[in-house]
Amino acid sequence: MLNKSNFSPTKLSPASFLVLGYLVVITIGTFLLMLPQASTTRGSIGFLTALFTATSATCVTGLIVVNTSTAFTVFGQVIIMVFDSGRRPGDYDYVYFNCSDFR
Questions:
Q1: Are 29 and 56 in contact (CB under 8 A)?
Q2: Distance in angstroms (rounded) separating the CA atoms of residues 83 and 80
């Protein structure tokens, strides 16, 4: 168990580091998709729609709850494309196995 007083990223297990990486990427994607410039509607898309879209683009599923071509601007579509291309097999596996040296 990690104590807050002696927390260090180098003390994370490779699995924890991988999960933390996914959470950071999904969080960044969610907030980018919530920007008004990413949506064709006035304002922005909802938090849950942005969270689901970012999670789906980052992970293997690729599901989406809104029509990408009509709900997102070119900026939003590029964000989805970038996060979707980051989930190629081997990208996170490479990071996972290289982080095992931190133990």
A1: no
A2: 5
pTM above 0.85, yes or no: no
| Domain presence at residue 4 | no
Q: pLDDT tens, 32-79?
A: 999 999 999 887 888 999 999 998 888 877 788 888 888 999 999 999
3 is a domain residue: no
How many structural domains does the chain have? 1
In a domain, 1, yes or no: no
- Per the domain annotation, does 90 fall within a domain? yes
Cite the beta strand spans of the chain per DSSP E: none
Tokens of 96: 């996972």
Backbone φ and ψ of 39, nearest 5°: -115, 145
